[in-house]
Amino acid sequence: MNAPAGRGRAREGEAFAALDLGTNNCRLLVGAASRGGFRIVESFSRTVRLGEGLAAHGRLAEPAMDRALEALRTCAERLARRQPRAVRAIATEACRQAENGPAFIARVRAETGLAFRIISPREEAELAVESCVPLLQGGARRVLLFDIGGGSTELAWVRLGGERPAFLGTLSLPWGVVSLAEHFGAAANTEAGFVAMQETVADRLRGFEEVHRIGQEIRQGGVRLLGTSGTVTTLAALALGLSRYSRHAVDGAVLSAGQVERALAEIRALGPAGLAQHPCIGADRAEFVLPGCAAFAAIRGVWPAPELIVADRGLREGLLMRMIREARQR
Fold first, then answer.
1. Hey, which residues does 159 pair with through a beta bridge?
2. d(Cα 144, Cα 216) in Å, to the nearest integer?
3. 113 phi-psi bin (left φ>0, alpha ψ -120 to 50, beta other)
4. CB–CB of 12/125 below 8 Å?
5. In the chain, which residues have pLDDT < 70?
6. I need a surface site. Which of 40, 108, 265, 311 has the fewest CB within 10 A?
7. 25 Cβ contact list (under 8 Å, min separation 6)
8. Do strands 166-173 and 153-159 pair parallel, antiparallel, or not at all (unpaired)?
9. pLDDT reported for residue 10
10. Cβ neighbours of residue 325 under 8 Å, at least 6 residues apart?
11. Cβ 311 vs Cβ 136: under 8 Å
12. SS3 state at 262
């Protein structure tokens, strides 16, 4: 179902669609081209846990693939109704790691018509940066962007100021909210487990710091820390005191170090039952919140920036912006 990327110049209001199949979620975003980029006309997200059991067995499990296929059939039906000009579909860490990842992608195409492409960690970071560029105005020289996913965490160290952001370095860690939760099990809900998860992630970050000396750049000023993931958007919702989640309030929010620390402390004090009942979290995500917060605490521990920019956007938005830009260039 991947439509050709261009049929002449993109027209105002013309629809484009992006799909992202990750370790934990299946997401669809349809955007209509506008002067400033695009406006969202339809979105869909479902927790499918595609990477469930992957760390132990090295393969995608049948129940996980069935859940993903059910969600993708829904996406295909919505796209059939919308008839967007172009569709691009990407798969990330779960399909990269799994021995049967490529076979599953072929099965998806055969059963739904959706042609997914398994992207590299580098392209994943590039798409995240592309989606977040509009949030990076205001004099920063460099930005450290991180995306705490389900099966991995991606980081991009980027120089700003030119026509396009320049990548100085990228890092992909094999630890995300799902892989940490599965590896540490029930211990993830304990204080000792939180510290162990944080140290596991931090240990992988220190080599990147030794090469790029990002901490020194932060101390000199002109560096922004930007997070795009369910972990940081949840932290932002709590830091802003939202009674229910609001993308409008969270996307682009700038949190001080104090706000971040208070939100982390509040989440850690809730406990499993409190996390499941919180209106900005819910039962589907509760078990992954503390592993995500541990990964985030590791990032902040290595790079203690004074502020955090929060982005409720990511790969799908980056894909849409790329498609629309390419169509306009044609």
1. 142, 166
2. 13
3. left
4. no
5. 1-11, 138-139
6. 265
7. 45, 46, 47, 48, 150
8. antiparallel
9. 60
10. none
11. no
12. helix
| d(C-alpha 84, C-alpha 300), whole Å | 40
Please give the pLDDT value at position 236. 97
What domains are there in the chain, each with its CATH number? 15-119 (3.30.420.40), 122-310 (3.30.420.150)
Cα→Cα distances 35→91, 324, 328, Å = 29, 11, 11
**pLDDT attached to residue 136:** 80
Predicted TM-score of the model (pTM)? 0.86
In the prediction, which pLDDT does 56 show?
87
Cβ-contact 213, 310 below 8 angstroms: no
Phi, psi dihedral angles at 23 (to 5 degrees): -70, -30
67-70 LR contacts (CB < 8 Å, sep 24+): 68/21, 68/26, 68/104, 68/108, 69/107, 69/108, 69/111, 69/112
> Hey, how many other C-beta atoms are within 10 angstroms of the C-beta on 265?
10
Tokens of 13: 């209001």
Specify the pLDDT at position 55: 85
Are the beta carbons of 152 and 93 closer than 8 angstroms? yes
Spatial CB neighbours of 227, under 8 Å, sequence gap ≥ 6: 145, 146, 147, 148, 296, 299, 308, 309, 310, 311
Q: Six-digit token pair at 30?
A: 């349809």
> From CA 48, how far away is CA 320, in angstroms rounded?
23
